[in-house]
Design a protein that fits this description.
Blueprint lengths: L2 H15 L5 H9 L20 E2 L5 E2 L2 H11 L6 E5 L5 H7 L4 E6 L2 H13 L5 E5 L12 E6 L8 H5 L1 E11 L6 E9 L2 E10 L12
Parallel strand pairs: 3-4, 3-6, 4-5, 6-7
Antiparallel strand pairs: 1-2, 7-8, 8-9
The structure holds S-adenosyl-L-homocysteine.
Length: about 210
């Protein structure tokens, strides 16, 4: 077996061990090389189950957390998904293999540019990266079947809840940025919003407004 194949097997084994068991999610994660989303110094650690620093003082999430969030989102092949917090673009690339269409938003223009380049290089034509304040969602393309937020807010932002289709699901970390946050799942049911707490997590904060750089 080549080094890359062994590494890939270990990567998937690690995901399964941490509770990522959905075969569609594992299949999508198998297709996306995390090494392509981490540059420089930390590149050799791309296949370990840990968050790593990326540009603009942000982080690429831990692979098992990406897997568990994606699994909780229950993406269907015909879904249109909105992600808030493009970062490296890794999570959006995983989603692109599961959904019909993915929109991903980040407040840092440089991160959006780099992620776009990666999507193009990988031939992922159903993902659009946009530089905007994700707190307002994406009214032009709303409503969405699924919304995934990868930065922590104290409460689910109202505009995002409003842009969720009936039957739609949103997964997001909530809590203060310097404390333990909880991943929650919000479902829009015929009788209103249903909330479920999933697991403790730690994400960078959702910050209002566009970044200056
Ligand atoms: N999903 C990413 C990791 C996200 S890190 C990946 O797979 O690599 C969180 C990201 O949320 C950061 O890039 C940060 O710039 C972004 N962010 C924080 N507040 C935001 C906001 N209001 N609107 C859009 N993006 C935001």
């Amino acid at each position: 077996m080549t080094d890359a194949a062994t590494r890939q097997m270990q990567f998937l084994f690690q995901l399964r061990q941490r509770g990522v068991t959905d075969t569609r999610v594992l299949g999508a994660m198998e297709k996306v090389d995390r090494g392509a989303f981490v540059r420089g110094h930390f590149e050799p650690r791309a296949y370990e189950d840990m968050p790593l620093p990326i540009a603009c003082g942000q982080t690429i999430s831990q692979p098992s957390v990406v897997g568990l969030m994606t699994q909780a989102l229950k993406v269907e092949p015909r879904d249109t998904v909105l992600e808030i917090g493009t970062g490296s673009g890794y999570q959006a690339a995983v989603l692109s293999h599961l959904a019909r269409r993915v929109y991903t938003i980040d407040r840092h223009r440089d991160l959006v540019r780099e992620a776009e380049d990666r999507f193009t290089a990988m031939g992922l034509h159903n993902v659009t990266a946009i530089c905007a304040d994700g707190c307002f969602g994406l009214p032009d393309q709303a409503p969405f079947d699924r919304i995934l937020v990868t930065a922590a807010a104290e409460d689910p932002p109202g505009p995002l809840l409003a842009q969720l289709k009936p039957g739609g699901v949103m997964v997001l970390p909530v809590g203060q940025s310097d404390a333990v946050q909880h991943l929650i799942k919000v479902t829009r049911t015929p009788v209103g919003l249903e909330y479920e707490e999933l697991l403790p997590v730690r994400f960078v904060p959702l910050v209002e407004g566009l970044a200056r750089d």
